[in-house]
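Hey,
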Amino acid sequence: MRRGAVAVVAGASGYIGQHLVRAWSRHGAVVRTIGRGPDADASWDDAAGLADVLGGADILVNLAGRSVSCRYSKPNADAIFASRTETTALLGRVLAASASPPSLWVNASTATIYRDARDRPMDEVTGERGAGFSVAVARAWEHELFDAPTAVRKVALRMAIVLGAGGGAVNPFINLARLGFGGPMGDGGQMFSWVHVDDVVRVVDHLAEHPEIAGPVNVAAPDAVTNAEMMRSVRRAFGRSHGVPLPTWALEAGARLIRTEAELVLKSRWVDPATLRGSGFAFAHPDLDGALDEIASRTRRGLLPVALG
């Protein structure tokens, strides 16, 4: 983000949001935030405040949404759905009424929108939608974005699993490896598409610099691997030569114990970042081994904190 640009980040307290705010502030951008905490520049229940924060901004990035690392009970499912669709719809209404809206609206989405894929990668044009709760959330989320009554350029970030030191989705895998359970999960053949958090920030900068890009954009490194390969790479990066495999029944039992869903590791996510490749984007962390080495260099010893659902 260029120096002096005005960026608005909704959901800035989350893992990706914190990285965006730090990176853009470091480069001299003016960053305004939307959230529920006392430090936010505008809150979701204050339409006038939202209008003030968004007016005259160059870019809006909406990352708001309850964590999906939980059991999909009715209350949790409703909260996951509402936290994504209602905030996105609200932003659309505020932008439609604004006399000086940002020129670019980047909204979080998820690569889970695609079907379980082991036969071929899913790109933005030929990728096939899946079924189930997670897919329904993703479809409704994107519907609110693209049907919002504003002419602002819109991009849906269909993000793969985001990895990075200090949080994100990598901590449970590291903990399993350190406990000796870093073997394949299920049959280990499910594909694992991922992206380093630093590249998520760089993708948003790339979108700001390429006004021809609009619509859904897959955010995944080109080095998709199987789950077995991923866990082998985690073991290597964190100094463990062997890991006990975790069969499906054990994963399902463990998921109930820590109040999450086994689908998060058993679904085969194989995502092709075709739009980014076609626009000349170069990943800073294109291969998993290199990304994990960078993460390991900034990760403390011992078991790491994991948010429980």
